[in-house]
Amino acid sequence: MTHAPANHPVHVGIIMDGNGRWAKQRGLPRIEGHRRGVETVRTIIDAAKDLGIKYLTLYAFSVENWKRPGDEVSGLMGLLEFFLKKETKTLVKNQVRLLTIGRTQELPEAVRGQLENAKKATAHFTDHTLILALNYGSRTEIVDAARAYAAAVASGKEKLNDSSWATFSRYLYTADIPDPDLIIRTSGETRVSNFLLPQAAYAEFVFIPTLWPDFTKADFAAAVATFAKRERRFGLTSEQLKPAVAR
Ligand code: IPE
Ligand code: IPE
Ligand code: MG
Fold first, then answer.
1. 214 counts as catalytic
2. How far, in Å, from the CA of 148 to the mean position of ligand 1?
3. Do the domain assignments include residue 38?
4. What CATH number is attached to the domain comprising 32?
5. What is the pLDDT tens value at each position of the chain, 247 positions in all?
6. Of all atoms in ligand 2, which is nearest to the CA of residue 59?
7. Measured from the CB, is residue 187 less than 6 Å from ligand 1?
8. Is there a domain that residue 100 lies in?
C-alpha cells in the first residue's frame, strides 16, 4: 500500500519487548513486568496522537507466545482483558479507533468480548487508529491470506493470471492499513520475530536498548526524529529522489 509522502511516519509499528527482563532485574515475577508494560502502552497510545501518528500497531502477543509457561500466558490474557475493559473509555474520549490483526478468534472468550466492545465503540473514528497485534504472526497471516485468496480464485472472484501484490495483499489482515513506515523494537534485540514481514518491506527500523516498561514518550519522539533523517530510496538512487535544484 502507500507510504508516507514526507519524512513523518504515517504508520509506526512497535515490538514491545523487555518486560520479562525488567522484572527479573528487580527480582519480581515476569507478570509484574507485563503489568508495568501496560502502563507504557497507555503512555505510548497517548503520545502517538500527540506526535501526529495516524496508525500505531503494537505487537502484544505472538502466535509463538502461547508456548510460554501457562501462568504467564493466562496472566497476559488477564491483563489484556483488564486493559481493554478500562481503556475503551479513554479510546472513545481520545477518538482512537481500535483494530486488531491476528487470529483473535483463538483468544479466550472474555478477551474476545472486550475486543468486540472496544471495536464497536470506536469504529466510527477516522483520524487515529490503534492496531493491536494479538495472536499474530506474519507466517500465519500469509497462510490465512493464501487460503482466502485460493478460495476467491476457486469461486471466480479473483483470476490467477491477474495475481499481483496489489491483489494478494487485499487478503492480509492489514488490507485496509497502510504499510508501516517505521518499526521500533525495544529491549536491544535486533530481530523482527514474525512481525509484519511483508508489510515492512520498505520500513525503517529503529532498535532501542531500553526495556519496554522504561520506554517513554521522549524515547518515542526520538525514534520518530531518527526516522525523519533517514533517506528512503525504494530501490531508486539518492540522486533520483532529490529535486533538481538540490543536486
Ligand atoms: C514483551 O516482553 C512482551 C511479550 C512478548 C508479551 P517479554 O516478555 O518478551 O520480555 P523479555 O524479552 O523476556 O525480557
Ligand atoms: C516478540 O517478542 C513478540 C511480542 C513483542 C509480542 P518475543 O519476546 O516473543 O520475541 P523473541 O522470542 O525474543 O524473538
Ligand atoms: Mg521478549
1. no
2. 31
3. yes
4. 3.40.1180.10
5. 444 446 999 999 999 999 999 999 999 999 999 999 999 999 999 999 999 999 999 999 999 999 999 999 999 999 999 999 999 999 999 999 999 999 999 999 999 999 999 999 999 999 999 999 999 999 999 999 999 999 999 999 999 999 999 999 999 999 999 999 999 999 999 999 999 999 999 999 999 999 999 999 999 999 999 999 999 999 999 999 987 655 5
6. 6
7. yes
8. yes
Q: How many structural domains is the chain composed of?
A: 1
The minimum-distance atom of ligand 1 relative to the CA of 61 is 6
3-state secondary structure labels for all residues of the chain: CCCCCCCCCCEEEEECCCHHHHHHHCCCCHHHHHHHHHHHHHHHHHHHHHCCCCEEEEEEEEHHHHHCCHHHHHHHHHHHHHHHHHHHHHHHHCCEEEEEECCHHHCCHHHHHHHHHHHHHHCCCCCEEEEEEEEECHHHHHHHHHHHHHHHHHCCCCCHHHCCHHHHHHHCCCCCCCCCCEEEECCCCCCCCCCCCCCCCCCEEEECCCCHHHCCHHHHHHHHHHHHHCCCCCCCCHHHHCCHHHC
Respond yes or no: is residue 17 known to be catalytic.
yes
User: Which structural domain, as residue segments, surrounds residue 43?
Assistant: 11-138+181-226
pTM of the model: 0.96
